[in-house]
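Quick one, tokens below:
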């Protein structure tokens, strides 16, 4: 009886540690979006913006503060999984959306409309439903075992499709629609993100096994997974910076979270065959979750505030403006359409605009 009670108390303490770490992770990650956005704005004033292909943000301290903050958040999230189950930790990642939206409202003055709040809620609810009903993951025991899972036909098809779609988005859609359609940049980030998680998991298992005394550095698969991880992470960062520099932070954060979570769960289920043996109710719940996310992203996208136009050295004049025109020695006020009257030989003087 005493042993059972002690185990129960220990499990509660572990869950509490995981909960605190997961909440802290969300706070850090949510704040990192704001720091990076501020850094991107400052870099855009001094040179080419990230959205236009510039990399001046690499010299901006605020952007690096955002990067460090995000890394701290990701480390806290990783450690949280050690103490608490994924069912508890993963849904708490949605808190980063709320943190980001609230900070953007007060710090970046990016207003979130009432329907935008509803879109955020739908994204959070949909992602939470998917995570809570996601199949349990079977943890591989070696890098070689993960390599077999990664080279099975089903996952090779997913990886090939993800890379093909990403290349279309990068080469065709990004130059044409990247600055007007938020789904282009975030689609690239999310697709590569799902592959990042799979490769990072392999690297993590290799490090864990090596620490336990089973050296995995001698396997070529370990280094392949490491190179894939680095390549995917760099690509994600480039296009996430483009998205943050181009679109409203309060919209980027929830859409990216929803897409990334959905695709990662899909990739994990394909690679680890977790959907086999699932009940019909769980599958139905996941489908409902996807529909909810789709609804949320649609609402967010349709209610996004238009981005302010670039600064210019002049302010366009209203078509209703009255012009003071001096003609034949007489002063008078005329509307724009009267300027073409042949009765006047006019000289328009800028300081006479009314």
């Amino acid at each position: 009886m005493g042993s059972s009670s002690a185990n129960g108390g220990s499990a509660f303490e572990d869950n509490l540690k995981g909960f605190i770490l997961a909440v802290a992770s969300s706070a850090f990650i949510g704040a990192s979006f704001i720091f990076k956005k501020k850094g991107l704005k400052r870099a855009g004033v001094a040179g080419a913006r990230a959205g236009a292909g510039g990399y001046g943000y690499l010299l901006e301290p605020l952007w690096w503060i955002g990067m460090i903050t995000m890394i701290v958040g990701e480390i806290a999230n990783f450690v949280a999984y050690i103490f608490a189950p994924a069912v508890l930790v993963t849904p708490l990642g949605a808190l980063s959306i709320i943190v980001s939206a609230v900070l953007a409202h007060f710090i970046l003055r990016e207003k979130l409309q009432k329907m935008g709040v509803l879109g955020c809620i739908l994204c959070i609810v949909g992602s939470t439903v998917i995570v809570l009903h996601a199949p349990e993951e079977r943890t591989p025991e070696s890098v070689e075992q993960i390599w077999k899972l990664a080279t099975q036909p089903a996952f090779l098809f997913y990886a090939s499709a993800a890379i093909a779609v990403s290349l279309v988005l990068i080469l065709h859609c990004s130059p044409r629609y990247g600055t007007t359609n938020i789904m282009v940049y975030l689609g690239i980030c999310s697709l590569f993100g799902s592959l990042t998680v799979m490769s990072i998991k392999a690297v993590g298992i290799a490090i864990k096994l090596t620490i336990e005394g089973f050296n995995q550095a001698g396997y070529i698969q370990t280094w392949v997974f490491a190179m894939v991880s680095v390549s995917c992470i760099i690509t994600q960062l480039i296009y996430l910076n483009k998205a943050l520099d181009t679109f409203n932070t309060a919209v980027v954060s929830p859409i990216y979270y929803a897409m990334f979570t959905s695709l990662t769960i899909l990739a994990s289920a394909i690679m680890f065959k977790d959907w086999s043996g699932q009940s019909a109710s769980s599958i139905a719940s996941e489908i409902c979750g996807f529909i909810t996310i789709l609804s949320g992203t649609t609402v967010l996208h349709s209610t996004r505030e238009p981005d302010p136009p670039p600064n210019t050295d002049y302010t366009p004049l209203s078509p209703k403006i009255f012009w003071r025109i001096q003609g034949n020695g007489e002063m008078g006020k005329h509307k724009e359409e009267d300027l073409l009257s042949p009765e006047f030989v006019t000289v328009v003087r800028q300081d006479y605009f009314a």
